Amino acid sequence: MLTTAVRISDDDFGQRLKDMRLWLDGRGFEPSTFTYFYLNPGMRVHVSFKIDGEAEAFAVEFGGSLIGTHDVADQVLAA
């Protein structure tokens, strides 16, 4: 599982979340978690994906970075 982190300014938080949701829905991507954290200023959104390519595409589209690594449980299941 990979997680993408995206920082969002207070000014456009609502619009950016809407853009993210529309983008995800338009591609049929289904994140496993979608959380946000309040910063001062702004917010940070963490979106986790089971499919690596989806996390990478999301990071590119929204100027984020990949912060997750594959969980040990994922590696055990794949073995």
What does this 3D model show about the protein?
The chain is an alpha+beta fold. It has a single domain, classed as Alpha-Beta Plaits, CATH 3.30.70. The chain is 42% helix and 28% strand. It is built from 3 helices and 4 strands; from the N terminus they run E-H-E-E-H-E-H. The chain has helices at 13-27, 52-62, 72-78, and strands at residues 2-8, 33-38, 43-49, 65-66. Strands 2-3-1-4 form a 4-stranded antiparallel beta sheet, with helices on one face. It is globular, with a radius of gyration of 13 Å. It starts with a strand and ends with a helix. Mean pLDDT is 86; it is low at 72-79.
Q: Indicate the CATH topology.
A: Alpha-Beta Plaits
Number of helices: 3
Radius of gyration: 13 Å
Mean pLDDT: 86
Structural class: alpha+beta
Task: Kindly report how far apart the N and C termini lie.
Answer: 15 Å
Question: Can you tell me the number of structural domains?
Answer: 1
The level-1 CATH class = Alpha Beta
